[in-house]
Structures are given as structure tokens and as C-alpha cells.
Amino acid sequence: MRLSGKTAVVTGAGQGIGAAIVEKLAAEGARVAALDLNQDNARSVIDRLSGEHLALKCNVGESKDVIKAVREARKTFGRLDFAVNCAGIGQAKGDGSDKFYGAMNQRNEELAKDGTSNTFVDHLIHMEDEGWAGVMAVNLNGAFYVCREAVRIMAEDGNVGSIVNISSTSAQSGEGSPHYVTSKSALIGLTRQLSRELAPRGIRVNAVAPGPTNTPIMTGLPQEWITSMEQSVPLGRMAEPSEVAAAVAYLLSEDASFVTGSVLVANGGSYCF
Questions:
Q1: Is the separation of the CB atoms in 87 and 22 below 8 Å?
Q2: pTM of the full predicted structure?
Q3: Do the beta carbons of residue 73 and residue 67 sit within 8 Å?
Q4: Is 200 a domain residue?
């Protein structure tokens, strides 16, 4: 019960890593506001928990939605101690993913048949502005909006808090789509800058960089890619969401009281930051 008496907002809380984080923080004694674009999914998560929790609809890509949801959490709980930015997507309309995966499949078929291929697996040249902006709006802008509003509240209340941003091993490896890798890399920069700016207030800001994790986002990837990712992990498997959630709980807790500006890597040994 390291987080007893504390309160938290968690974005992307309706499934996958976000849901696991909500469950872990609640198990550690925190009251949690689960924010998700699909409020029913968020509610289904907190309905499984004991204690006082909150499910809120929130499109993190819209600053007004974030302000409303984070303020509602503070109003309900009377305080705000933690914010976890977990909302993230890997694809968006107009980002060229269909052409990218089509080319990948064609290349794999050619390699299997003849051992050679002249097919280029391009993503960048097929990506429209809309697709780029869609992923950045959720993965990066959303985290900025949540950090900003959480810190505003902590400053108003004179409260010492902690923030964790969910990045990705792709920020180190460069593996993945242009918008996803860029957004997750930028989150690390945001984490480091905020950790220095907010240190005088006693607010700690850290990141967790998971490797391949068994979440719904994996369902959009070709099986060949998933298999390749698993084989590249020294531990020989993907992470479970609960394992990433445990890293988040540590960083939020007083066990990490002298940890800020850090990236905790939970990737089975794939890459070292």
C-alpha cells in the first residue's frame, strides 16, 4: 500500500497497459481517475476494483477535454498527486499504414519465393499530414496537455507530485512508424526538460520505456513483425501489461523519491538507454 492516501489520473486507461496501471495503483492504495476516449471501457476497469475511483471520457488530443477531466478528478478526490500519460496510438487515418503493410507482405512473399525482392517497404512517402498529426495529437500533445494541467493544479495546491510518461523502446531503436517513433522519442525529451524545471517544486517527472508488450495495439501488426519482435527480445517474449504497471508504481512511489528525469526501461534486455 505504498500509495495509500494518494490520487492519480491515468490516460488511456480503458485497456492494455493503461488498465493495468489503474489496477496496480489502486492495489497500492491510490484513488484513480481512469481517463479514456471510451468511457465505458474505463468504467469496466474501475468496476473491477474496490475503493473510490472515477471513470471519465477524455480525448487527450483536445486540451479542453484534458482540462475538464483533470479538474474533475481533483474536485472529486480533493487533491491530485500523480499523473500517468499512457494514452497512445500507433496508426491514424491517412498515415499510409495500409500501403506500408501491403508492401511488407509483398516483400516477404517475394523473399520466401525467390530469396530476393525489389519491393521497398515505404511508410514516409505514403503518410499524409492528417495521419502524422493524428498520432502526434494523442501521443505527444496529449501528454503535454495532461502534464500542464496536472502541474497547474499541483502548483495551486502547493502539492508535491509525480508524473510518469509512457514512452517506448522504439525511441532508442528507431523501429516502428515515423510518427510513432518520433512521438515516443519526444516524450523522453519532454520528461527530461520538465524534470529539471519542476524539481524546485518537488515534482518528479520520469518515463517508462516498454518493449513489445501484449496489448491491443499489437493486433494491428502483421504476425511476421510480432514474431520478429519477440525473437529480438533476449528474454524471449513480450512483456505483460502488469510488468510495465509495476515500473510505473515504483516511479510514483516514495521508493523512487530521488529519481527524476529518468527512463526506466522495461524491454526484456532489448535496448539500453
A1: no
A2: 0.91
A3: no
A4: yes
Q: What are phi and psi of 48, to 5 degrees?
A: -85, -5
Task: Please give the chain's pLDDT, 273 residues, in tens.
Answer: 899 999 999 999 999 999 999 999 999 999 999 999 999 999 999 999 988 999 999 999 999 999 999 999 999 999 999 999 999 998 889 998 989 888 888 988 899 888 999 999 999 999 999 999 999 999 999 999 999 999 999 999 999 999 999 999 888 888 889 999 999 999 999 999 999 999 999 999 999 999 888 887 777 666 777 887 788 888 878 888 999 999 999 999 999 999 999 999 988 887 776
Active-site residue, from 145, 180, 250, 271: 180
Is 28 a member of any domain? yes
**In 3D, which of 1, 11, 17, 151 has the Cα closest to residue 81?**
151
CATH code at position 20: 3.40.50.720
Q: Supply the range of the domain harboring residue 79.
A: 7-266
| Count of structural domains within the chain | 1
Can you spell out the DSSP letters for 215-245? Answer: SGGGGGS-HHHHHHHHHHSTTSSPBPHHHHH
Contacts of 265 (CB under 8 A, 6+ apart): 169, 208, 209, 211, 271, 272, 273
Residue 2 lies in a domain: no
Query: Catalytic residue at 271?
Result: no
233 touches 176 (CB < 8 A): no
Q: What is the spatial distance between Cα 230 and Cα 212, in angstroms, rounded to a whole number?
A: 7
Reference 172, options 205, 134, 211; nearest CA is 211
In a domain, 157, yes or no: yes
CB 229, CB 268: distance < 8 Å: no
